[in-house]
Amino acid sequence: MEHYGYFRQFHDISLADYHLLTDNLQSRSFKKGTAIVVPGQVQRDLYFVKSGVQMAYLEADDKTYVIDFSYAPALCAIAESFSFQAPSKYFLTCLTDTEMACLPHAQLQQLLDQSRSVERLFRRMIERMLADMVDMHINLRAMTIEERYRAFCSKSPELLHLVPHKYIASYLGIDPTNFSKLFNQVRF
Questions:
Q1: Please, are residues 95 and 55 in contact by the beta-carbon 8 Å criterion?
Q2: How crowded is residue 17: how many other Cβ atoms within 10 Å of its Cβ?
């Protein structure tokens, strides 16, 4: 029942459909630093985060560009690799020791065909993810670095203590030195 409340934020899924979705999940553990997906690899399983923090990122020009963080109780995936069963263009790595439950792509497809409620749940989760991505693009273009920092701290304050600041700075499009100044000057 650990993800039931999370799922209900998106769709009023019944207990029967919840169990249809979760009864066949397999637990997986990953150590800090483990790459779950690397460029060129297809993500075969969808992950439901139980504990830990993961980071999606790409490397180019000797720089790390952070795309997203995932942590409980969210999903963890390279969305286009999992959805289309195509090679990933970037990395998905565990920043901390991680516990997740996983569901293979083929099994999820069967569940989506079997249950309209599960299908609606995933559609609404994808809609939320798309809206969040649009918001992030707007924030990167229209907000000052302090506004971005404050918005991040309001949404995910726990990550300030779990994620190396250079990665948060990259995610927010802030130079690491400026991020350090913000971290030391702006209080929550």
A1: yes
A2: 21
User: Nearest to residue 151, comparing CAs of 130, 129, 173?
Assistant: 173
Judge whether 9 and 3 are in contact, CB under 8 Å: no
CATH 1.10.260.40 assigned to 4-115: no
Q: What does the domain layout of the chain look like in residue ranges?
A: 4-115
Percent of the chain with pLDDT over 90: 87
pLDDT value at position 1? 61
Residue whose C-alpha is closest to residue 111's, from 101, 126, 125, 121: 121
In percent, the amount of the chain with pLDDT more than 70 equals 98
Alpha-carbon span 97 to 51, nearest angstrom:
8
pLDDT tens digit string along 102-142? 999 999 999 999 999 999 999 999 999 899 889 989 988 99
Residue 109, token pair as written in the block: 């497809």
Q: Which residues contact 142 (CB under 8 A, 6 or more apart)?
A: none
